[in-house]
Design goal:
It is a single chain. The protein has 185 residues and is of the alpha/beta class. It has one domain. The chain has seven helices and four strands, in the order αβααβββαααα. It has helices spanning 3-15, 25-41, 44-51, 97-112, 125-145, 149-159, 162-183, and strands at residues 16-18, 56-62, 72-76, 83-89. The chain has a four-stranded mixed β-sheet. A hairpin with a 6-residue loop joins strand 3 and strand 4. Helix 4 (97-112) crosses helix 5 (125-145) and helix 5 (125-145) crosses helix 7. The termini are far apart.
Length: 185
């Protein structure tokens, strides 16, 4: 095992928490491998944010609630001391690997992009909805910038109707273009 692989395995062991005691060691080991794979897919500088502690992250696997909910990221605290919590439901452990990775990479995109806590979001309902939509695009764009678009697309096509996927792809493209234009200014 390489030093980086060992560091990622240790990170996963320290930062992924089961919501309740694991029923079976193989399941816990199997899901840990998926998390390790997700982190190992990240570019070295992005992975460094996690391994160095620059992004304070805890991943919690919670019991299913009977509703089809996706993974979610919550943040709290000021920007210089922000903490992040990604909630994953037990049923998502059973998803095909590429779908799981696509969804989890999106949540890591929120962490890398430093998603603000909800109490810092706009107050009006319409503005909150538009803001949430934009930060989802930003998280997806992060995954695309990491060269992992195929995982993002797997997640998007499994989660949204085709016309929404097309809209999301257009919006991600706009964000990436804006960023490229800002680099040249």
């Amino acid at each position: 095992m390489s030093l980086q692989s060992e560091a990622v395995a240790n990170y996963v062991r320290d930062h992924v928490r089961p919501g309740r005691p694991a029923r079976d060691g193989k399941v816990a080991s199997g899901i840990a491998k998926r998390f390790e794979k997700a982190f190992s897919l990240l570019p070295e500088d992005v992975l460094g944010l996690f391994l160095s502690g620059s992004r304070n992250l805890t991943v919690v696997i919670v019991p299913d609630v009977g509703l089809p909910l996706g993974m979610s990221t919550k943040s709290q605290g000021p920007l210089d001391a922000r903490t992040y919590r990604i909630m994953i439901y037990e049923e998502q452990q059973e998803w095909p690997e590429d779908l799981f990775l696509g969804a989890f990479l999106r949540e890591l995109g929120h962490v890398v992009a430093q998603r603000p806590p909800e109490d810092e979001w706009p107050k009006s309902r319409g503005d909150r909805a538009r803001y949430k939509e934009r930060i989802e695009y930003i998280a997806d764009a992060m995954v695309w910038k990491w060269g992992l678009r195929h995982y993002s697309m797997r997640h998007l096509t499994a989660t949204y109707p085709q016309h929404w996927v097309e809209k999301i792809v257009v919006e991600i493209g706009k964000l990436l273009l804006e960023e490229k234009e800002q680099q040249y200014q």
